[in-house]
Amino acid sequence: MYRKILITTDGSAVSKHTACAGVNFAKQMGADVLVLYVAPEYQYPVYVEIIPPSYPSEEEYLAQMRRVGQEHLGSVLRAAQDAGLRCEGLTAFADAAALKIVEVAEQRQCDLIFMGSHGRSGWGQLLLGSVTNKVLSHTSKPVLVHRLITEPGT
């Protein structure tokens, strides 16, 4: 049914558990996996006239965020490989994470977007996460929203 599933992660504990559930779902479907971490774009300081020496350059920032992305993607990619799935990880840069998720799903021809109901910025169990809600409203692709009943570690 699904040949390629986009699994998102923001690096939070909840997101990692959701991503692993996505890997299990992909295994059941026999689908390939693309794991995506969206990092914020580089921001120049407000006081652009004088950039403090300790402020990272754009190149330093991008390199650091790629390392962070690899850390966040690593456990999910290992789980996919252990499950015998073809998988790929991608760190993308955007200030609007939801729109980047939709864009990557289109560009990489994913059949399904698998994401958590809440991530790093979730409001407990009260509201659907803002990124998830925006993805749902901006894509015509199917989105499987995974909801953890209990927080990881409880």
UniProtKB/TrEMBL annotation:
Signal peptide per UniProt: none
Transmembrane segments: none
InterPro entries assigned: Rossmann-like_a/b/a_fold, Universal_stress_UspA, UspA
Protein known as: Universal stress protein UspA
Highest taxon of source: Bacteria
Domain UspA: 1-145
SUPFAM superfamilies reported for this sequence: Adenine nucleotide alpha hydrolases-like
Family the UniProt entry places it in: Belongs to the universal stress protein A family.
